[in-house]
Amino acid sequence: MINLRFIFLVLFLFLISCQNNDNLFELKDNRKLGISFSNNLGFDNDFNVYKYRNFYNGGGVALGDINNDGLIDLYLTSNQNKNKLFLNKGNFNFEDITSQANVGGTKAWSTGVTMVDINSDGLLDIYVCNSGDIKGDNKQNELFINNGDLTFTESASNYNLDDKGYSTHASFFDYDKDGDLDVYILNNSYQAIGSFNLTKNERPKRDLLGGDKLMENVEGVFKDVSEESNIYGSVIGFGLGVTVGDTNGDDWEDIFVSNDFFERDYLYINNRDGTFTEDLTNQMKSISGASMGADLADIDNDGFNDIFVTEMLPSKYERLKSVTTFEDWNKYQYVVKNGYYHQFTRNVLHLNNRNQTFSEIGRFAGVEASDWSWGALFFDMENDGYKDLFIANGIYKDLTDQDYLQYISNAEVVKSIVMNNEVDYKRLIEIIPSEKVPNHAYKNVNGINFNCYINSGLDIPSFSNGSAYGDLDNDGDLDLIVNNVNMPVFVFENKSKNINNYIKFELKGLDKNVNAIGTKIIVKTKNGIQTQEVQPARGFQSTVDIRPNFGLGDAINVDVEVVWPYGKKTFLKNIGVNQTVTLNEKDAIEYSEDFSSTKATKPLFQKTQIKPNVIHKESNFVDFNRERLIYHMCSSEGPKMTKGDINGDNEEDILISSSKGNSIQILIKNGSDYYLDKKNNKIFNHLKNVENSEILPFDADNDGDLDLYFSSGSVEHSIYSQTLYDRLLLNNGKGEFIDSNQTLPDINNKISTGVVKSGDIDNDGDQDLFVGERIKIGSYGLPGSGFILMNDGKGNFSNQTQKTAPELTNIGMITDASFEDIDSDGNLDLIIVGEYMGINIFKNDGSQFVRIENKLLDEKGWWNEIHITDLNNDGKNDLIVGNHGLNSRFNASKSKPIRLYYNDFDKNGFGEGIICFEAENGKDYPYALRHDLIDQIKSLKKKFPDYESFKTADITNIFDQKILNQSDIHSVNTLETSIFIKKEGFEFEKISIPKETQFSPVYSINSHDFDNDGDKDILLGGNLYDVKPEIGIYDASYGLYLENLGNLKFKYHRDGKGFFVKGEIRDILISDKNVFVSKNNEKIEVFKF
């Protein structure tokens, strides 16, 4: 029998030989290094993945100088074999000193490892977490105390650190700033996943033996203070990552815990009094589902820490289609209802908003999918001043393989595996697929955008778990160690060749925190400001080099500010680069900033209250129950607002549209106050069974008062329902409305209206109408029509579309429109936007609307909103158009568009819209998974009997070319919210705008010169929560204020200068120095300016 170890060695040498010499990192030959280690896992009938769920989670890495010779040494944990300690001899030569050092460990199943000077003697000790439930082993964690002579003594029980839980990792830090190091021990619940009743959230139930623990250092012995410090220690804690750092800028360390399985993550905010407040649901809107490793770092160099968490979403299409399944809408709602929050299958990147909120931008940053991911580390790989991202990936036996799961669920297979009430675990496990997955490296481009680091040299297919970075050869760049399952450890040397400068720090702390854990270092150069915190326990089960290493790019001198753990500071000016600077906390100075003379800046926008306030209540309709292959609901796009003098008192009243089952509401202005209109309760209650998508106040009958066009929209009605007719409500002059009994747009068109606009299009002195169809109910993907309704001067409207604008028929899924005299010829032209549509401009030639062929027509997006205003004071009106945004699993470009194929593919009389993306090979692949397509089109099950047959199928493999040729095909090539500047005639030019605009779909836009500098600033709002879980909600926007700096330059303000709104913004209205913000399913917010 061929030796398994020999095979892995051959493969390992092959990987080394295949490496590109131009790669940033070089995989070293372990034989030459003197490092012999592989975390090999063998089969055991009594202890395997079916008896211990974390069987393939792997081991950790710890880096630290154990003998104070200036060289970083290496410790690796093994699950079934001895852990190993390698002494760094210099020049990438290591010596295995495990046996003489007595640090191999005697307990079963080691996991995480932390190097820390626990007894403050100036020597790094080693704390090893142990787990697993092996018979005869009690799993105590081990603490190896450094004796100073390259030997260690196991002493965990002396310090009360011999925890008996399923420990994953431990992070040492001084949470109470009393001068010594405390510890957070991360544990994984003893209970089987299937044993919990999810309707009874057991988060408050403490697991005294196995739960997470916060241990206070009391004169060298650690005491469990979890309960009094408000740490859960829960029976449903499935901790796989603990990350410590200051998240709110108060210089006290907070704690982020990533939990696997159904339990949500925790964010513990340090109250600075020995207690914590768990505040995740107030600060983060969406999180990863089966959270694993995490890291915390300042990725955009704004001085605040951001958080990245790994999950299991594959980046490779074939694996996505063969190993992935997602919760459906009902399961997702069940999870949220029972307190487990908004969890999604993907990595997440929480960008710190500097006000105790985060925006999840993982999809925007391009880091949401990296497969079965464990360790995540932010570090500056090439010393350019930005922290890059490394993710360790792989699972030796892929239990999520869908074909495997189908196979073992077959009754006959079960019978063959289970005989005489005994399970043949060996056979059951042998047939689990095993596929190496490349590790991922991402280059930080500008702080919040990451590109795949193609030449990193780190993307080796493997089964990788724990990882740690450190400067092993003291050349000023960071090397990387990766622990693998059933493969030799990876040792990567950074070969950046000093293309950029650096500065490194060695910190000497006070008596009981000798390595100054918790210190914050701020480095200032001509290229900007960087911040790092000293906290070596990072990533997954690992410990990094404790010496902060700053990449400086081409900067040749730096200023440094050191904020020590206990309040003192050190300031250095004009320090040279490419050196290691040693600093002592005892030499620091007492420093406190004097804010007494600093005048607080008054925010531009100040939140205020109006009474009575109006609360929008959304209906419970679920679009996905009607159309299984759509991803976004259209039934929750309200409420819209508008303004007008309804009762003739020369004051602007506010009108708010309603959801089905509720009445529209009018706030009547009365001086500085408002009151709720009750005159029209009867007629509005009569219409409450209609989803009122838009309200348009305009003088329909030329009698001098404002009438109302009441549109019916959404997808909640039958296509045959009479409620789909729009209505015209006439004002009697006293603010009371009477139904005109017109059926609009006309008797033959019951439509879901998305927009209505008024304008005198024939210059006859009365207001005519454009009405846009939002969607064909039950047929997402079929184009709707636009309608031109001409006014006879008395408020009677007739459909004149075929005569005046025949090109509006079946134009698209219309979301917004505007009348505007674009060419200044005295006639109102028409601009229309929508889903799968370009920006359509129709010239009014006096008798007809004729579509203009220009570049805007090729800008095909999922457009939601259009706002027209003059942004550069040239007398020409420009276009601001709200789109889907770039923080999404959907991506589109002119070279790689999204396409929607619509047809009755299963010939059952009802059509389906199938959304696809164009891959690098030029073929279109569906976003839908196999089982989702089969649920809708049953005949596909015979064509694709398993996931293997489906995973490479493009749209032409799934459906015959004949039916594809007969399909309605619509495309999208841009998802960016955009600004187009008016040039000559009908030409517009797209300009660059702040990238933060793309964090979420934009549903509302308004503009005003808020800062009184002579040009128009912009407010935008959006977010969408009614989204299938596989896509994930869009929640990263808190409203945006874009300051117009002139010359078509716009500045994003993260705090919005006071305009900061949580929720799904649906409209922004400006009236009387107030900004009104309507939100779906919430009350209106108001800001004064």
Overview of this protein structure:
- The protein is mostly beta strands.
- Helix content is 9%, strand content 35%.
- It contains 17 helices and 76 strands.
- Strands 57, 58, 59, 60 and 61 form a five-stranded antiparallel beta sheet that branches. It has a four-stranded antiparallel beta sheet with strand order 1-34-33-32, with no helix packed on it. A four-stranded antiparallel beta sheet has the order 2-3-4-5.
- It is globular and about 100 Å long.
- The chain starts with a helix and ends with a strand.
At a glance:
With 1089 residues, this protein is mostly beta strands. The protein is 9% helix and 35% strand. The protein contains 17 helices and 76 strands.
State the main characteristics.
single chain; 4-stranded antiparallel beta sheet; mainly beta; 1089 residues; disordered N terminus
Draw up the topology in text:
Layout: H1 4-17, E1 25-27, H2 30-33, E2 61-64, E3 73-76, E4 84-90, E5 93-96, H3 98-101, E6 110-116, E7 125-130, E8 142-146, E9 152-154, E10 166-173, E11 182-188, E12 213-218, E13 221-224, E14 239-245, E15 254-259, E16 266-270, E17 276-278, H4 280-283, E18 287-288, E19 294-297, E20 306-309, H5 317-323, H6 329-337, E21 343-344, E22 348-352, E23 358-360, H7 362-365, E24 373-379, E25 388-393, H8 402-408, H9 411-417, E26 418-419, E27 422-423, H10 425-430, E28 437-438, E29 440-444, E30 450-452, E31 461-462, E32 464-470, E33 479-484, E34 490-494, E35 501-508, E36 520-525, E37 528-533, E38 537-538, E39 542-543, E40 549-553, E41 557-563, E42 569-576, E43 579-584, E44 606-608, E45 641-644, E46 653-656, E47 665-670, E48 673-676, H11 681-686, E49 692-698, E50 707-712, E51 727-731, E52 737-739, E53 752-759, E54 768-775, E55 786-791, E56 797-799, H12 801-804, E57 813-820, E58 829-837, E59 840-844, E60 849-851, E61 861-862, E62 865-869, E63 878-882, E64 898-903, E65 912-918, E66 924-926, H13 930-936, H14 940-943, ...
